[in-house]
TrEMBL record:
Gene3D superfamilies: HIT-like. This is Histidine triad (HIT) family protein. It comes from Xanthomarina spongicola. Residues 4-107 form the HIT domain. The lineage of its organism: Bacteria, Pseudomonadati, Bacteroidota, Flavobacteriia, Flavobacteriales. InterPro entries: Histidine_triad_HIT (IPR001310), HIT-like (IPR011146), HIT-like_sf (IPR036265). One of its GO terms (biological process) is nucleotide metabolic process. The active site is at H93.
Length: 129
């Protein structure tokens, strides 16, 4: 069965898209640790990050870096953190999280955002890409 992220890629499920290439997609996490929390995924559906072939792994990191630099410009934060977990969705994804404190990295305190806030966040990040 296609992962929820494959359904986002195909457009079956909506998302707040930040960036897209033939191979990768970046979109806002729907239950963010902090405003601007973004997921970068390969379109190829692979469960665990270190199962990716080396080229796709390195290209995913390069794609994530570009998105992270835009997030850092668009969202007030001390830095952008990077996490790979994957316990909930078995489709490789890199979490890019604007950090102001260690709490933002803990996946415990979640930020509540309206659809309008999500849309404005997309616009702000995209303006730096
Ligand atoms: P994990 O697999 O533990 O790294 O977490 C999966 C992440 O995907 C969580 O932060 C969720 O909030 C996020 N997520 C799940 N479904 C969606 C969705 N439809 N759109 C955006 N983010 C999602």
């Amino acid at each position: 069965m296609a992962s929820i992220f494959s359904k986002i890629i195909s457009g079956e499920i909506p998302s707040y898209k930040i960036a897209e290439t033939d191979e990768f997609l970046a979109f806002l996490d729907i239950n963010p640790n902090a405003k601007g929390h973004t997921l970068c995924i390969p379109k190829k559906e692979v469960n665990k990050i270190f199962e990716l072939d080396e080229k796709t792994y390195l290209d995913l990191m390069s794609f994530s870096r570009k998105v992270a630099l835009a997030i850092e410009k668009a969202i007030p934060c001390k830095r952008v953190g990077i996490s790979v977990i994957g316990l909930e969705v078995p489709h490789v994804h890199v979490h890019l999280i604007p950090l102001n404190s260690m709490e933002d990295a803990r996946f415990v305190n979640k930020e509540s955002m309206t659809p309008e806030e999500f849309q404005n966040t997309v616009k702000a990040i995209k303006s730096y890409l």
